[in-house]
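Fold it.
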Amino acid sequence: MHLVVFDCDGTLIDSQNTIFHGLTVGFEAAGLAPPDRRTALSIVGLSLETAFAALLHEDNHHQVPLMADAYRQSKIDRRAKGLDHDPLYPGAREALDRLTERDDVLIGVATGKALRGVHHMMDVHELHNLFVTIQTADKAPSKPHPGMLIQAMAETGIDAERTVMIGDTRFDMEMANSAGVAGLGVSWGYHEKQDLYEAGAETVIDEFDQLNGVLVSKFNWFEG
């Protein structure tokens, strides 16, 4: 068996607009000016409190709990109104279906989202019953700590040599390296290709149609 673990934001779903909105709400709740969009989105992938702390001067770190709570409440309110339906990236659903159809592959998620956010994504895109392991900010330390991947491998009984982490940020690649698994980057997310390679990505794909071919050629995995 093989285990393919996907990041969510910037890898499976294009959530940049809703994340930036939530971050802006958090800064406004603390009476602070939000950073520019590029700077704000550079922290996508980290757990929420870690992300806010990374965007703040240390003198304002005491504001992190307030800001994180404001972000979370904004998400709850907007979803109740039918908003924040982040689209899947082109080819994402087809790639998930191809892997799910295989008898020798399990797929999972490792994300800085809370479990509530993952369930929302699965509800919106009808992704329930695809992921055999779901690792979130509620259950493990923030990336790049390897805890999410270690837990995913423990839950599935699949070792590091047969596990790959797919993500769009250096945090994903650093987590993969720390857990001893292969890191596969995607170029359509929040960090540049060069950043992904410098963080340890084995390779970087430009579209989901390349995924199976890379698993065969680069990682010597299954054919087809």
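DSSP finds ten helices and six strands in the chain.
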